[in-house]
Amino acid sequence: MSRKRVAVLISGRGSNMAALIEAAKAVDYPAEIALVLSNVPGAGGLAVAAAEGIATATVDHRAYGRDREAFERAMQAVLEAQRIDIVCLAGFMRILTPWFVGRWEGRMINIHPALLPAYKGLDTHARALADGATEHGATVHFVTPGMDEGETILQEAVPVLPGDTAESLARRVLEVEHRIYPQALRMIATEYTLL
Questions:
Q1: Model confidence at 1, in pLDDT bands (50, 70, 90)?
Q2: Averaged pLDDT, 129-153
């Protein structure tokens, strides 16, 4: 089995990245985490990846000022040098331009802490609680130029419990994220292999 080479893009501690790394240790998993790339120097997830023997890279977006495409071209060069097949966003806190998204169409996925199409963007847990939602959850979706608008790959709900805070709800949703993101990557890597 030829395993697909995956890059995980992060901006922070990378707990979803760690879940993907763990899943990829299985001998029958169709993808290997070949690179972890961060836009934030010293992001916590870089040390986690390095400790697992995974190549890491940093492309600091601040060095490019407002030129988002120049930043993305620098990232693209790193991805190409590492012969990446699939990109997973895992807490990558940058909005990507159509230029970059177009290069990875159908091969770039994201995990979002809400049941899309509800609660796109930030502060999803607090917004769900403020609305009196009875369920919340996580979605893995393809990345498109519109924020959190791509086709859903996997989704799983958790009930909103009486007395939930944004923090308690976030903890339960994160458990779901760690379970469904590796499942979704398996699906995409397998389907991509068949193309």
A1: low
A2: 97
How does pLDDT run across 149-168, given as a tens digit for each residue? 999 999 999 999 999 999 99
Per-residue tokens: 34:
């070949």
185: Cβ contacts below 8 Å, ≥ 6 apart? 6, 20, 23, 31, 86, 88, 109
To the query of whether residue 112 is one of the catalytic residues in this protein, the response is yes
Number of compact structural domains in the chain: 1
Amino acid type, 155: Q
Q: Which of 61, 112, 125, 178 is catalytic?
A: 112
Pairing of strands 86-89, 108-112: parallel
State the CATH number of the domain containing residue 107: 3.40.50.170
Q: Which residue range(s) make up the domain with 105? A: 4-194
Question: Is 111 in contact with 181 (CB distance < 8 Å)?
Answer: yes
Q: Two tokens at 38?
A: 């961060």
DSSP 8-class letter at 62: G
Instruction: List, for residues 62-112, the tens digit of each pLDDT value.
Output: 999 999 999 999 999 999 999 999 999 999 999 999 999 999 999 999 999
For residue 53, count other CB atoms closer than 10 A to its CB: 7
- The kind and range of the H/E element at 108 are strand 108-112
pTM beyond cutoff 0.85: yes
Q: For residues 163 and 189, is the Cβ–Cβ distance under 8 A?
A: no
